[in-house]
Amino acid sequence: MTGQAEDHLDRVLAQWASARPDLDAAPMGVVGRVSRASHVLGREMRAVFARHGLQPWEFDILATLLRAGPPHRLTAGALSEASLVTSGAITNRIDRLTDRGLVTRETAPGNRRSVLITLTGEGRRVIDAAVADHVAGQDRLLSALAPAEREELASLLRKLLLSNGDTL
Question: What is the mean pLDDT of residues 154-166?
Answer without folding.
Answer: 91
